[in-house]
Amino acid sequence: MSKLLSIIIPTYNMEALLPRCLDSLLVPDALERLEAIVVNDGSKDGSLAIANSYRERFPDTVTVIDKPNGNYGSTINAALPVAKGKYVKVLDSDDWFKSDSLVQYLDSLQKVDADFIVTHFTIIHPGGKKELAKYNLYGKEPYEYGKVYDLSHVLGGGYIRFFMMHAITYRTDLLRENGYVQTEGISYTDLEWDTYPMFYAKDVVFFDIDLYQYNMDREGQTMDPKVLNKSIAQQEKITEKILAFLENRGLDNLDSDRQAFLRQYYLNRLRLICKSHLFDINRNEFNPEHFAQLEERYQKVCQRFELGEIKLYPENKIIRCNAMKYWHRHHKRWPAWFELFNRGVNAIMRTLYLKLFR
Hints:
Oligomer: single chain
Largest sheet: 10 strands, mixed
Number of strands: 10
Radius of gyration: 21 Å
Structural class: alpha/beta
Number of helices: 13
Strand content: 15-25%
CATH class of the largest domain: Alpha Beta
CATH superfamily of the largest domain: Spore Coat Polysaccharide Biosynthesis Protein SpsA, Chain A
Helix content: 40-55%
């Protein structure tokens, strides 16, 4: 039986949170149009039993795949070949959808035909504070909701620098036709979900719907800064994967707007890895020899694809000191006192930004 939307739910040891995730989907007005594919990635708790109990209750809506542990990408690879929906979206099992928004979303999906669909999402920060994330710039919303746009036109508009998986839905056949596969065995492969289709998706539509509820209020969450700082090696590996995709696919067959977007996107990704080493990790964990090798590789990519110069200024936009230039001159990080001062200014400016624009 065909469906309108397939939702892939990677699951590993989430018995406490999986019911909330599934309950948010299994509402009467959504069941016939929706497919929930729970991929149990070798959980050691009761996640599989919970998933199977939902499959028994909702046999026409819930599918369960049980497989050995292979990390995040392996769950996407297992689910995509069997997805029945015209469109496909990923929902982490510690997150959930707004149920009323889901019904609204399905209604909206039925009225369009596009490769790429973008919705709002809510970030639940530690402590429970909520932030609505929209794809706009300083409160401007340049695209008419529900209208299908040429993706290159949107990417060339300069309003969007990147997309996050929480906002993204794809036409399922788009991924299959282009041989989409995610890297297995490491975390942070949702970066591939955000990146590869930007090379070949043709059109995009935005909906004024707050759908995905992104739960960062959980200890051990992969985007927790403490976890991020301990997993730089995995972030480097997945960055290497998307660089390999760029090198294999190239930019020459893309229009100028998309080339410009992807150049800026990749440059920003390389900048973020450099930022992790020069700003974020503890000073005693910084390895100058490793970073020198990494930066040499990145500089070659920048030259080959004309990405530009990797610059690393503080996010507060007040202190105008380029950490990359300091590194090139001294082969070390900024002095400890300067790093401490910079963090304080960053915190102040971040608070002001949220009050002014959010």
